């Protein structure tokens, strides 16, 4: 199969997608997008409309919408594919079905260099996506489209005067048929089945398919099946019979026959020829990784050579002084430290977890602790020893007593939510479920629990708690990792499928409100990948249900899901560094449209991913990620954001013998504070009055003449990172996957402050000061850590701190800092005496 990874630009522009490609071959395929293929290195054979063209370095070719095409590539090349959105391009050009003739091999034209330069400029902005503005990026995209229109557009009839031709209708039909085959090749497929779907006769379909593809229907289907089977022969230990059946062949004999026709060898012999010993296979894997990195270095080197001294990257990275004049300032709510996810109920009963929660509260001080599994089997709530079941709340008392003693109010996720520890979306390390209960059993248990809590803690206390109602029909994490569940498909195609959840919610909310009328009950943990149209329909459906939540809860992970197949991509982390801000804005707009604009919005889970086996979680990147997203979303009308998770104890498992295992926690299982933890400590020092904020800083104020400044140098992922599965980067290469390693020089001047002497405290968090990952690597990354060595790292892994006194004469405070990648700095300035 062709080795490719589409990397969307960070700017939320749907007009273009850019793919960096290198590898083998693709089957014939068609799509609606207009495609430009641009060779950077090596050569590439492109077959379009039964005509083959060999492209070499700097050559390009345009494939029109719905043109049948394929690639054949050697192993040492690099090329870029630009997909222009068909509908948006037609709209910009004022054309319907525009036809281009653009092939640098067949045509000799001065316009070729113009298009090459335009593509190079677009790539330069793309490679520096984090620092480019939307206007700057779109300028380069529109420039490419403009050149295509002026130099290569051959059919220029206006949009309103065009009508679909018979040929174009045939191309639309071919697209549907090929997509259907690709999605169903593992099932028995026949001409009769496809003909019935297309509402045409079998003879017509047979003739049509042969004419369009050059192959009979069965030949094409078998070619698709064999292409998928080859990878399994080489890279899996499946039996050949299993591979044959899993890829749609009716029996082993049919597979052998088709395979032999394609490769002139039986599958068993092919496997022997291509399978490598384990040691050699590992070497080959390392070689392929090195090849990919080298290919992307070649792309950057190419652009450095072709972009002139008027270098675009210099324009992109140019820094300016920031001047802030004191004027009208608004108060804001610190929404990020209202709640923290502490995990599964039984984990909280462990002494190690309680010790960590205690020091967390002393240093950060969250208001709510969100947890689930309160009624799990391990909590031993139900006593079946007698004829009639009774309830035993002993373990629940221990949990709630501890939280309340530490000034933490419960945020309880109701329902049988499982405990899931994940390496990635595709790989669950452990999955712990609970016994099922009927709705009546839930109501009975919930009533007994609430009455018990009122008696033990008072109704005034319980009224301040939050209750979130969960159902296994709507958990996006659980369902994305388990494709057999229908959650994603249901919500995308029929929001009415949520009727079951609405019934559960109505019943349990009424139960809570009968006993504790003022307690807040909400749901439902909306997924991060929900499209705007489906989100609007879902809200309208809930409004029709009648029983409204007191708050809406959503989960925000920076995940992009393939909307066509409803499954995560190979590396699903978003290329958009502003993903969370974009999604929150989308949710708020949908709430407004549905009449939910005054409803409380709580992000009950947020992180860049759910992975508990990714060393990024232990790095300084995570600290900068936390600060950036919290600063970005200040004053976005969010009540609280609950970070996922607090401690690595939640994800401790048999494969977690090392000091660090990539857990999503802010604290290691040994109690060492990670950079992400320190980020929350630094954020705690911000005041309640917002003076100013920008892409890399925030300035706040407390009463009197007290100012707080946080600066940060956030780096998003490099384009090559998306070629690999999430979490596959070696521990020593965690800082080699970002867009650049440039320092950030930032100069902030606050004008209008009181003259006098100020006390200035500075704290710095970076790889040298406060990073447990870097300290552990320096320590030798040994797995057999002794208690005194863990104690040493606890003392060592803290931000640096220094204090100075400055005198302000001209009513302006100026701070200049050079921040390393992923670095965070906090400045606290307090007026000691006025002039």
SSE diagram, text form:
Layout: E1 4-7, E2 16-21, E3 34-41, E4 44-48, E5 51-55, E6 60-63, E7 69-73, E8 78-84, H1 86-93, E9 99-100, H2 111-127, H3 134-152, E10 153-155, H4 166-184, H5 191-198, H6 202-213, H7 217-235, H8 240-246, H9 252-263, H10 267-274, H11 278-306, H12 312-317, E11 322-325, E12 330-331, E13 339-344, H13 345-348, H14 351-363, E14 368-372, E15 382-383, E16 390-391, H15 394-405, E17 409-414, E18 419-422, E19 428-432, H16 439-457, H17 459-462, E20 466-469, H18 476-481, H19 487-493, H20 499-515, E21 520-526, H21 532-545, E22 551-557, E23 559-562, E24 567-573, H22 579-593, E25 600-607, H23 620-632, E26 640-643, H24 675-684, E27 689-694, E28 697-702, E29 706-712, E30 744-751, E31 756-765, H25 772-779, H26 787-796, E32 800-808, E33 812-819, E34 824-834
Parallel strand pairs: 11-30, 13-14, 14-17, 17-20, 20-21, 21-22, 22-25, 25-26
Antiparallel strand pairs: 1-2, 2-8, 3-6, 3-8, 4-5, 4-7, 9-10, 12-27, 15-16, 18-19, 23-24, 27-28, 28-29, 29-34, 30-33, 31-32, 31-34
Helix pairs in contact: 2-3, 16-20, 21-22, 23-24
